[in-house]
Amino acid sequence: MDYAASLQMALPEVILSLGSLVLLMIAAYVGDKSTRAIGWLAVGLFAAASLSLLGPAGHGGEAFYGLYRADAFAAFAKLLIYIAAAVSIIIAPGFFKDGALRAEYPVLIVLAAVGMGMMVSAADLLTLYVGLELNSLAAYVLASFMRRDTRSAEAGLKYFVLGALASGILLYGITLLYGFSGTTMFEGIAVAMKDGLSNGELFGLVFVLAGLAFKISAVPFHMWTPDVYEGAPTPVTTFFASAPKVAAIALTVRVAVEAMGPGSDAWRQIVIFAALASIVLGAVAAIGQTNIKRLLAYSSINNVGFALIGLAAGTEEGVASVMTYMAIYVAMTLGSFLCVLQMRDRDGNHVETISSLAGLSSTRPALAAALATFMFSLAGIPPLLGFWAKFLVFDAAVAAGMWPLAAIGIAASVIGAFYYLKIIKTMYFDEPAPAYAPSESIVENGLIAISALFVSPLGYFLIPALGVATMNAARALF
Protein backbone atom coordinates (compact mmCIF):
# COMPACT_ATOMS: atom_id res chain seq x y z
CA MET A 1 0.00 0.00 0.00
CA ASP A 2 1.20 3.48 -0.88
CA TYR A 3 0.84 5.40 2.39
CA ALA A 4 1.51 8.75 0.69
CA ALA A 5 -1.40 8.20 -1.71
CA SER A 6 -3.65 7.04 1.16
CA LEU A 7 -2.80 10.12 3.23
CA GLN A 8 -3.59 12.33 0.24
CA MET A 9 -7.02 10.72 -0.02
CA ALA A 10 -7.58 11.25 3.71
CA LEU A 11 -6.21 14.82 3.54
CA PRO A 12 -9.35 16.50 5.02
CA GLU A 13 -9.09 14.35 8.15
CA VAL A 14 -5.30 14.89 8.32
CA ILE A 15 -5.75 18.68 8.13
CA LEU A 16 -8.46 18.71 10.80
CA SER A 17 -6.65 16.25 13.10
CA LEU A 18 -3.31 18.09 13.07
CA GLY A 19 -5.08 21.45 13.20
CA SER A 20 -7.14 20.42 16.24
CA LEU A 21 -3.95 19.42 18.09
CA VAL A 22 -2.39 22.82 17.36
CA LEU A 23 -5.57 24.60 18.50
CA LEU A 24 -5.62 22.49 21.65
CA MET A 25 -2.05 23.55 22.48
CA ILE A 26 -2.94 27.21 21.90
CA ALA A 27 -5.95 26.83 24.21
CA ALA A 28 -3.80 25.16 26.86
CA TYR A 29 -1.06 27.81 26.85
CA VAL A 30 -3.02 31.00 26.13
CA GLY A 31 -6.31 30.14 27.86
CA ASP A 32 -9.86 31.27 27.19
CA LYS A 33 -8.83 34.74 26.00
CA SER A 34 -7.76 33.01 22.76
CA THR A 35 -11.28 31.60 22.17
CA ARG A 36 -12.27 33.94 19.33
CA ALA A 37 -8.94 33.48 17.56
CA ILE A 38 -9.19 29.69 17.91
CA GLY A 39 -12.73 29.85 16.53
CA TRP A 40 -11.67 31.67 13.38
CA LEU A 41 -8.63 29.39 12.99
CA ALA A 42 -11.03 26.41 13.20
CA VAL A 43 -13.17 27.97 10.45
CA GLY A 44 -9.96 28.32 8.42
CA LEU A 45 -9.27 24.60 8.94
CA PHE A 46 -12.71 23.76 7.57
CA ALA A 47 -12.05 25.97 4.54
CA ALA A 48 -8.72 24.20 3.94
CA ALA A 49 -10.34 20.78 4.37
CA SER A 50 -13.06 21.76 1.88
CA LEU A 51 -10.48 22.89 -0.69
CA SER A 52 -8.57 19.60 -0.27
CA LEU A 53 -11.68 17.79 -1.59
CA LEU A 54 -10.79 19.10 -5.06
CA GLY A 55 -7.82 16.69 -5.18
CA PRO A 56 -7.52 12.93 -4.57
CA ALA A 57 -9.60 13.33 -1.39
CA GLY A 58 -12.64 13.90 -3.60
CA HIS A 59 -12.19 11.10 -6.13
CA GLY A 60 -9.11 9.05 -5.23
CA GLY A 61 -10.79 5.70 -4.54
CA GLU A 62 -9.82 3.24 -1.82
CA ALA A 63 -7.13 3.91 0.79
CA PHE A 64 -5.59 2.08 3.74
CA TYR A 65 -6.15 -1.42 2.35
CA GLY A 66 -9.75 -0.65 1.43
CA LEU A 67 -10.78 0.58 4.90
CA TYR A 68 -11.37 4.15 3.69
CA ARG A 69 -13.01 5.42 0.52
CA ALA A 70 -12.48 8.85 -1.03
CA ASP A 71 -15.23 9.33 -3.61
CA ALA A 72 -17.74 11.93 -4.81
CA PHE A 73 -20.36 10.72 -2.32
CA ALA A 74 -18.09 11.27 0.68
CA ALA A 75 -16.83 14.59 -0.72
CA PHE A 76 -20.37 15.99 -1.09
CA ALA A 77 -21.33 14.93 2.44
CA LYS A 78 -18.10 16.35 3.91
CA LEU A 79 -18.67 19.72 2.26
CA LEU A 80 -22.11 19.98 3.92
CA ILE A 81 -20.62 18.86 7.26
CA TYR A 82 -17.83 21.44 7.14
CA ILE A 83 -20.20 24.29 6.24
CA ALA A 84 -22.58 23.41 9.11
CA ALA A 85 -19.70 22.98 11.58
CA ALA A 86 -18.12 26.30 10.59
CA VAL A 87 -21.44 28.14 11.03
CA SER A 88 -21.88 26.52 14.48
CA ILE A 89 -18.50 27.96 15.52
CA ILE A 90 -19.10 31.43 14.02
CA ILE A 91 -22.43 31.95 15.83
CA ALA A 92 -21.25 30.78 19.27
CA PRO A 93 -19.80 34.10 20.62
CA GLY A 94 -23.18 35.78 20.19
CA PHE A 95 -24.83 33.21 22.46
CA PHE A 96 -22.27 32.66 25.21
CA LYS A 97 -21.93 35.76 27.37
CA ASP A 98 -19.69 36.67 30.32
CA GLY A 99 -16.86 34.30 29.45
CA ALA A 100 -19.09 31.20 29.21
CA LEU A 101 -17.58 30.34 25.81
CA ARG A 102 -14.40 28.40 26.42
CA ALA A 103 -11.54 27.68 24.03
CA GLU A 104 -12.45 23.97 23.90
CA TYR A 105 -15.70 24.63 22.01
CA PRO A 106 -14.26 25.04 18.48
CA VAL A 107 -11.70 22.26 19.14
CA LEU A 108 -14.48 19.82 20.06
CA ILE A 109 -16.39 20.66 16.89
CA VAL A 110 -13.25 20.12 14.77
CA LEU A 111 -12.66 16.74 16.43
CA ALA A 112 -16.31 15.79 15.88
CA ALA A 113 -15.88 16.72 12.19
CA VAL A 114 -12.88 14.36 11.94
CA GLY A 115 -15.11 11.54 13.16
CA MET A 116 -17.90 12.51 10.76
CA GLY A 117 -15.43 12.54 7.86
CA MET A 118 -14.38 9.00 8.73
CA MET A 119 -18.04 7.97 8.98
CA VAL A 120 -18.96 9.08 5.45
CA SER A 121 -15.75 7.61 3.96
CA ALA A 122 -15.97 4.29 5.81
CA ALA A 123 -15.67 1.15 3.67
CA ASP A 124 -15.38 -1.16 6.66
CA LEU A 125 -17.54 -1.67 9.75
CA LEU A 126 -14.66 -0.93 12.11
CA THR A 127 -13.78 2.33 10.35
CA LEU A 128 -17.46 3.19 10.64
CA TYR A 129 -17.47 2.49 14.37
CA VAL A 130 -14.27 4.39 15.15
CA GLY A 131 -15.51 7.46 13.24
CA LEU A 132 -18.91 7.32 14.87
CA GLU A 133 -17.44 7.08 18.38
CA LEU A 134 -15.01 9.96 17.77
CA ASN A 135 -17.95 12.12 16.72
CA SER A 136 -20.09 10.92 19.65
CA LEU A 137 -17.46 11.51 22.36
CA ALA A 138 -17.08 15.13 21.29
CA ALA A 139 -20.86 15.52 21.03
CA TYR A 140 -21.47 14.31 24.61
CA VAL A 141 -19.18 17.04 25.94
CA LEU A 142 -20.73 19.69 23.68
CA ALA A 143 -24.27 18.82 24.85
CA SER A 144 -23.29 19.53 28.48
CA PHE A 145 -20.99 22.43 27.60
CA MET A 146 -22.72 24.83 30.02
CA ARG A 147 -21.98 22.49 32.90
CA ARG A 148 -23.42 24.83 35.56
CA ASP A 149 -26.74 24.92 33.71
CA THR A 150 -29.04 22.11 34.86
CA ARG A 151 -30.70 21.64 31.48
CA SER A 152 -27.37 21.41 29.64
CA ALA A 153 -25.92 18.92 32.14
CA GLU A 154 -29.09 16.82 31.90
CA ALA A 155 -28.94 16.91 28.08
CA GLY A 156 -25.33 15.70 28.10
CA LEU A 157 -26.11 12.87 30.52
CA LYS A 158 -29.16 11.68 28.56
CA TYR A 159 -27.24 11.82 25.29
CA PHE A 160 -24.34 9.89 26.82
CA VAL A 161 -26.45 7.11 28.37
CA LEU A 162 -28.66 6.57 25.32
CA GLY A 163 -25.70 7.01 22.96
CA ALA A 164 -23.80 4.29 24.82
CA LEU A 165 -26.82 1.99 24.48
CA ALA A 166 -27.04 2.68 20.73
CA SER A 167 -23.29 2.08 20.32
CA GLY A 168 -23.68 -1.29 22.06
CA ILE A 169 -26.54 -2.25 19.75
CA LEU A 170 -24.50 -1.20 16.69
CA LEU A 171 -21.43 -3.08 17.88
CA TYR A 172 -23.48 -6.22 18.46
CA GLY A 173 -24.82 -5.96 14.92
CA ILE A 174 -21.27 -5.53 13.58
CA THR A 175 -20.22 -8.64 15.53
CA LEU A 176 -23.06 -10.69 14.02
CA LEU A 177 -22.30 -9.52 10.47
CA TYR A 178 -18.62 -10.35 10.95
CA GLY A 179 -19.41 -13.75 12.46
CA PHE A 180 -21.76 -14.84 9.67
CA SER A 181 -20.08 -13.18 6.65
CA GLY A 182 -16.45 -13.62 7.75
CA THR A 183 -15.46 -10.01 7.05
CA THR A 184 -16.05 -6.44 8.20
CA MET A 185 -15.44 -4.97 4.71
CA PHE A 186 -18.55 -3.61 3.00
CA GLU A 187 -17.69 -5.36 -0.28
CA GLY A 188 -17.15 -8.69 1.47
CA ILE A 189 -20.46 -8.43 3.32
CA ALA A 190 -22.25 -7.70 0.04
CA VAL A 191 -20.65 -10.79 -1.56
CA ALA A 192 -21.73 -12.94 1.41
CA MET A 193 -25.32 -11.66 1.14
CA LYS A 194 -25.58 -12.43 -2.58
CA ASP A 195 -26.22 -16.10 -1.78
CA GLY A 196 -29.19 -15.16 0.38
CA LEU A 197 -29.47 -13.81 3.90
CA SER A 198 -28.82 -16.24 6.73
CA ASN A 199 -30.64 -15.69 10.02
CA GLY A 200 -27.42 -14.40 11.59
CA GLU A 201 -26.86 -11.87 8.79
CA LEU A 202 -30.49 -10.76 9.04
CA PHE A 203 -30.18 -10.14 12.79
CA GLY A 204 -26.87 -8.33 12.22
CA LEU A 205 -28.49 -6.13 9.57
CA VAL A 206 -31.36 -5.26 11.94
CA PHE A 207 -29.05 -4.36 14.84
CA VAL A 208 -26.73 -2.25 12.67
CA LEU A 209 -29.67 -0.30 11.24
CA ALA A 210 -31.10 0.13 14.75
CA GLY A 211 -27.81 1.63 15.95
CA LEU A 212 -27.66 3.97 12.96
CA ALA A 213 -31.34 4.93 13.42
CA PHE A 214 -30.41 6.33 16.83
CA LYS A 215 -27.76 8.56 15.25
CA ILE A 216 -30.20 9.97 12.70
CA SER A 217 -32.95 10.16 15.39
CA ALA A 218 -35.42 8.09 13.40
CA VAL A 219 -38.46 6.61 15.14
CA PRO A 220 -38.43 4.50 17.35
CA PHE A 221 -34.92 5.61 18.39
CA HIS A 222 -35.74 9.31 18.55
CA MET A 223 -36.48 9.69 22.28
CA TRP A 224 -33.27 11.59 23.09
CA THR A 225 -33.70 14.29 20.45
CA PRO A 226 -36.23 16.76 21.97
CA ASP A 227 -34.58 16.75 25.43
CA VAL A 228 -31.04 17.14 24.09
CA TYR A 229 -32.02 19.83 21.55
CA GLU A 230 -33.83 21.81 24.25
CA GLY A 231 -31.18 21.44 26.97
CA ALA A 232 -28.02 21.96 24.92
CA PRO A 233 -26.81 25.53 24.19
CA THR A 234 -28.44 26.80 20.99
CA PRO A 235 -25.21 26.87 18.89
CA VAL A 236 -24.63 23.23 19.92
CA THR A 237 -28.23 22.35 19.01
CA THR A 238 -27.62 24.04 15.64
CA PHE A 239 -24.61 21.78 15.18
CA PHE A 240 -26.47 18.61 16.26
CA ALA A 241 -29.37 19.32 13.92
CA SER A 242 -27.15 19.79 10.87
CA ALA A 243 -23.64 18.32 10.59
CA PRO A 244 -24.00 15.00 12.51
CA LYS A 245 -27.39 14.50 10.85
CA VAL A 246 -25.79 14.71 7.39
CA ALA A 247 -22.98 12.36 8.45
CA ALA A 248 -25.36 9.78 9.92
CA ILE A 249 -27.74 9.85 6.93
CA ALA A 250 -24.80 9.55 4.49
CA LEU A 251 -23.34 6.67 6.52
CA THR A 252 -26.71 4.88 6.60
CA VAL A 253 -27.04 5.29 2.82
CA ARG A 254 -23.52 3.93 2.22
CA VAL A 255 -24.02 0.93 4.51
CA ALA A 256 -27.43 0.12 2.98
CA VAL A 257 -26.29 0.40 -0.63
CA GLU A 258 -22.68 -0.86 -0.52
CA ALA A 259 -22.67 -3.40 2.31
CA MET A 260 -26.29 -4.59 2.32
CA GLY A 261 -27.27 -3.99 -1.32
CA PRO A 262 -28.07 -7.68 -2.02
CA GLY A 263 -30.27 -7.75 1.10
CA SER A 264 -32.32 -4.73 0.00
CA ASP A 265 -35.64 -6.59 0.36
CA ALA A 266 -34.88 -7.02 4.07
CA TRP A 267 -33.58 -3.54 4.94
CA ARG A 268 -36.12 -1.76 2.74
CA GLN A 269 -38.93 -2.87 5.05
CA ILE A 270 -37.09 -1.43 8.05
CA VAL A 271 -36.37 1.85 6.23
CA ILE A 272 -39.99 2.21 5.07
CA PHE A 273 -41.29 1.71 8.62
CA ALA A 274 -38.74 4.16 10.08
CA ALA A 275 -39.57 6.73 7.35
CA LEU A 276 -43.33 6.65 7.82
CA ALA A 277 -43.14 6.47 11.64
CA SER A 278 -40.71 9.42 11.73
CA ILE A 279 -42.88 11.53 9.42
CA VAL A 280 -46.06 10.89 11.39
CA LEU A 281 -44.64 11.08 14.92
CA GLY A 282 -42.47 14.09 14.09
CA ALA A 283 -45.53 15.93 12.77
CA VAL A 284 -48.03 14.93 15.46
CA ALA A 285 -45.71 15.35 18.47
CA ALA A 286 -44.66 18.84 17.35
CA ILE A 287 -48.21 20.20 17.41
CA GLY A 288 -48.41 20.64 21.18
CA GLN A 289 -44.90 22.03 21.72
CA THR A 290 -44.45 25.43 23.34
CA ASN A 291 -40.64 25.56 23.13
CA ILE A 292 -39.22 26.48 19.71
CA LYS A 293 -36.16 24.22 20.08
CA ARG A 294 -38.30 21.19 20.98
CA LEU A 295 -40.52 21.95 17.98
CA LEU A 296 -37.47 22.07 15.70
CA ALA A 297 -36.31 18.77 17.23
CA TYR A 298 -39.53 17.09 16.13
CA SER A 299 -39.20 18.88 12.78
CA SER A 300 -35.76 17.25 12.45
CA ILE A 301 -37.28 13.80 13.12
CA ASN A 302 -39.98 14.56 10.54
CA ASN A 303 -37.43 15.57 7.91
CA VAL A 304 -35.33 12.44 8.48
CA GLY A 305 -38.44 10.45 7.57
CA PHE A 306 -38.72 12.23 4.21
CA ALA A 307 -35.03 11.65 3.48
CA LEU A 308 -35.43 7.93 4.22
CA ILE A 309 -38.14 7.69 1.54
CA GLY A 310 -35.41 8.41 -1.02
CA LEU A 311 -33.22 5.67 0.49
CA ALA A 312 -36.12 3.20 0.42
CA ALA A 313 -36.23 3.57 -3.38
CA GLY A 314 -32.74 2.01 -3.44
CA THR A 315 -31.84 3.54 -6.82
CA GLU A 316 -29.26 6.07 -8.01
CA GLU A 317 -32.04 8.64 -8.31
CA GLY A 318 -33.17 7.80 -4.78
CA VAL A 319 -29.70 8.30 -3.30
CA ALA A 320 -29.27 11.54 -5.28
CA SER A 321 -32.61 12.79 -3.91
CA VAL A 322 -31.46 12.03 -0.34
CA MET A 323 -28.28 14.07 -0.80
CA THR A 324 -30.21 16.96 -2.38
CA TYR A 325 -32.67 16.81 0.51
CA MET A 326 -29.85 16.99 3.05
CA ALA A 327 -28.22 19.97 1.30
CA ILE A 328 -31.48 21.93 1.38
CA TYR A 329 -32.28 20.67 4.90
CA VAL A 330 -28.96 22.01 6.21
CA ALA A 331 -29.74 25.49 4.84
CA MET A 332 -33.26 25.47 6.30
CA THR A 333 -32.07 24.19 9.69
CA LEU A 334 -29.16 26.62 10.02
CA GLY A 335 -31.46 29.49 9.06
CA SER A 336 -34.14 28.45 11.57
CA PHE A 337 -31.70 28.17 14.48
CA LEU A 338 -30.03 31.45 13.53
CA CYS A 339 -33.46 33.05 13.92
CA VAL A 340 -33.86 31.33 17.32
CA LEU A 341 -30.53 32.88 18.38
CA GLN A 342 -32.07 36.32 17.76
CA MET A 343 -34.86 35.63 20.27
CA ARG A 344 -33.54 37.75 23.16
CA ASP A 345 -35.52 39.88 25.61
CA ARG A 346 -34.63 43.49 26.41
CA ASP A 347 -32.05 42.35 28.99
CA GLY A 348 -30.30 40.15 26.42
CA ASN A 349 -31.55 36.87 27.90
CA HIS A 350 -32.43 34.16 25.40
CA VAL A 351 -36.13 33.31 25.06
CA GLU A 352 -37.35 29.99 23.62
CA THR A 353 -41.15 30.10 23.98
CA ILE A 354 -43.20 30.16 20.79
CA SER A 355 -45.63 32.60 22.40
CA SER A 356 -42.84 35.21 22.62
CA LEU A 357 -42.88 35.35 18.79
CA ALA A 358 -46.33 36.99 18.88
CA GLY A 359 -46.43 40.17 16.82
CA LEU A 360 -42.84 39.76 15.60
CA SER A 361 -43.93 41.01 12.17
CA SER A 362 -44.51 44.49 13.61
CA THR A 363 -41.48 44.70 15.94
CA ARG A 364 -38.85 42.87 13.82
CA PRO A 365 -40.34 42.53 10.30
CA ALA A 366 -37.12 41.31 8.65
CA LEU A 367 -36.61 38.55 11.24
CA ALA A 368 -40.28 37.53 10.95
CA ALA A 369 -40.01 37.35 7.15
CA ALA A 370 -36.87 35.20 7.34
CA LEU A 371 -38.35 32.81 9.91
CA ALA A 372 -41.57 32.57 7.86
CA THR A 373 -39.48 31.68 4.80
CA PHE A 374 -37.77 28.84 6.66
CA MET A 375 -41.07 27.56 8.13
CA PHE A 376 -42.79 27.58 4.72
CA SER A 377 -39.78 25.83 3.19
CA LEU A 378 -39.66 23.17 5.93
CA ALA A 379 -43.38 22.59 5.33
CA GLY A 380 -42.59 21.96 1.64
CA ILE A 381 -44.77 24.76 0.30
CA PRO A 382 -43.90 25.93 -3.24
CA PRO A 383 -42.18 27.90 -4.63
CA LEU A 384 -39.60 27.59 -1.82
CA LEU A 385 -36.74 25.12 -2.17
CA GLY A 386 -38.04 22.82 0.57
CA PHE A 387 -40.79 21.82 -1.89
CA TRP A 388 -38.19 20.69 -4.43
CA ALA A 389 -36.45 18.51 -1.83
CA LYS A 390 -39.70 16.69 -0.99
CA PHE A 391 -40.66 16.43 -4.66
CA LEU A 392 -37.40 14.65 -5.50
CA VAL A 393 -37.70 11.97 -2.81
CA PHE A 394 -41.36 11.30 -3.72
CA ASP A 395 -40.47 11.20 -7.43
CA ALA A 396 -37.68 8.66 -6.74
CA ALA A 397 -40.10 6.48 -4.76
CA VAL A 398 -42.71 6.58 -7.54
CA ALA A 399 -40.07 5.79 -10.19
CA ALA A 400 -39.06 2.73 -8.13
CA GLY A 401 -42.67 1.52 -8.11
CA MET A 402 -43.27 2.53 -4.50
CA TRP A 403 -46.16 4.90 -5.13
CA PRO A 404 -48.11 3.87 -1.98
CA LEU A 405 -45.12 5.01 0.14
CA ALA A 406 -45.01 8.33 -1.73
CA ALA A 407 -48.78 8.78 -1.36
CA ILE A 408 -48.67 8.18 2.41
CA GLY A 409 -45.66 10.51 2.72
CA ILE A 410 -47.46 13.29 0.83
CA ALA A 411 -50.57 12.88 2.98
CA ALA A 412 -48.52 12.91 6.21
CA SER A 413 -46.66 16.05 5.12
CA VAL A 414 -49.96 17.93 5.41
CA ILE A 415 -49.95 17.24 9.18
CA GLY A 416 -46.46 18.73 9.48
CA ALA A 417 -47.56 21.89 7.69
CA PHE A 418 -49.91 22.65 10.60
CA TYR A 419 -47.28 23.44 13.23
CA TYR A 420 -45.08 25.39 10.81
CA LEU A 421 -48.09 27.53 9.89
CA LYS A 422 -48.90 27.94 13.59
CA ILE A 423 -45.57 29.77 14.08
CA ILE A 424 -46.31 32.05 11.11
CA LYS A 425 -49.80 32.74 12.47
CA THR A 426 -48.28 33.62 15.87
CA MET A 427 -45.81 36.08 14.29
CA TYR A 428 -48.28 37.80 11.98
CA PHE A 429 -51.72 37.62 13.57
CA ASP A 430 -51.39 37.33 17.38
CA GLU A 431 -51.35 40.27 19.78
CA PRO A 432 -47.75 41.53 20.07
CA ALA A 433 -45.63 40.17 22.93
CA PRO A 434 -42.78 42.23 24.45
CA ALA A 435 -40.35 43.12 21.67
CA TYR A 436 -37.02 41.36 21.30
CA ALA A 437 -33.77 43.24 21.74
CA PRO A 438 -32.44 44.59 18.42
CA SER A 439 -29.82 42.45 16.74
CA GLU A 440 -26.31 43.88 16.74
CA SER A 441 -24.59 40.95 15.01
CA ILE A 442 -23.77 41.59 11.36
CA VAL A 443 -22.55 37.98 11.05
CA GLU A 444 -25.83 36.46 12.31
CA ASN A 445 -27.91 38.76 10.11
CA GLY A 446 -25.74 37.99 7.09
CA LEU A 447 -25.97 34.22 7.59
CA ILE A 448 -29.77 34.44 7.98
CA ALA A 449 -29.98 36.43 4.73
CA ILE A 450 -27.79 33.92 2.84
CA SER A 451 -29.83 30.94 4.11
CA ALA A 452 -33.13 32.66 3.28
CA LEU A 453 -31.97 33.51 -0.24
CA PHE A 454 -30.82 29.90 -0.76
CA VAL A 455 -34.23 28.42 0.15
CA SER A 456 -36.15 31.19 -1.67
CA PRO A 457 -37.19 30.81 -5.34
CA LEU A 458 -33.73 32.19 -6.26
CA GLY A 459 -32.33 28.86 -5.03
CA TYR A 460 -33.87 27.14 -8.07
CA PHE A 461 -31.05 28.62 -10.16
CA LEU A 462 -28.70 26.31 -8.26
CA ILE A 463 -30.72 23.17 -9.01
CA PRO A 464 -28.81 22.17 -12.21
CA ALA A 465 -25.43 22.31 -10.43
CA LEU A 466 -26.86 20.63 -7.32
CA GLY A 467 -28.42 17.90 -9.48
CA VAL A 468 -25.11 17.13 -11.20
CA ALA A 469 -23.22 17.04 -7.89
CA THR A 470 -25.74 14.75 -6.16
CA MET A 471 -26.03 12.38 -9.14
CA ASN A 472 -22.23 12.06 -9.27
CA ALA A 473 -22.28 11.35 -5.54
CA ALA A 474 -24.95 8.67 -5.96
CA ARG A 475 -23.16 6.97 -8.87
CA ALA A 476 -20.07 6.58 -6.71
CA LEU A 477 -22.01 4.04 -4.59
CA PHE A 478 -23.34 1.92 -7.46
Automatic annotation (TrEMBL):
The EC number(s) this enzyme carries: 7.1.1.-
Any one of the GO CC terms: plasma membrane
Catalytic activity annotation: a quinone + NADH + 5 H(+)(in) = a quinol + NAD(+) + 4 H(+)(out)
Topology in membrane: Multi-pass membrane protein
Keywords: Cell membrane, Membrane, NAD, Oxidoreductase, Quinone, Translocase, Transmembrane, Transmembrane helix, Transport, Ubiquinone
Keyword Hydrolase belongs to the record: no
Membrane spanning residue stretches: 6-30, 37-55, 75-96, 103-122, 159-182, 202-224, 269-288, 295-313, 319-341, 366-389, 401-421, 442-463
Any one biological process term the GO annotation gives: ATP synthesis coupled electron transport
Subcellular location: Cell membrane; Endomembrane system; Membrane
GO molecular function per UniProt: NADH dehydrogenase (quinone) (non-electrogenic) activity; NADH dehydrogenase (ubiquinone) activity; quinone binding
Domain NADH:quinone oxidoreductase/Mrp antiporter transmembrane residue range list: 122-416
The family this protein is said to belong to: Belongs to the complex I subunit 2 family.
Oligomeric form and interacting partners: NDH-1 is composed of 14 different subunits. Subunits NuoA, H, J, K, L, M, N constitute the membrane sector of the complex.
Role: NDH-1 shuttles electrons from NADH, via FMN and iron-sulfur (Fe-S) centers, to quinones in the respiratory chain. The immediate electron acceptor for the enzyme in this species is believed to be ubiquinone. Couples the redox reaction to proton translocation (for every two electrons transferred, four hydrogen ions are translocated across the cytoplasmic membrane), and thus conserves the redox energy in a proton gradient.
Protein's recorded name: NADH-quinone oxidoreductase subunit N
Organism: Sphingomonas cavernae
Gene responsible for this protein: nuoN
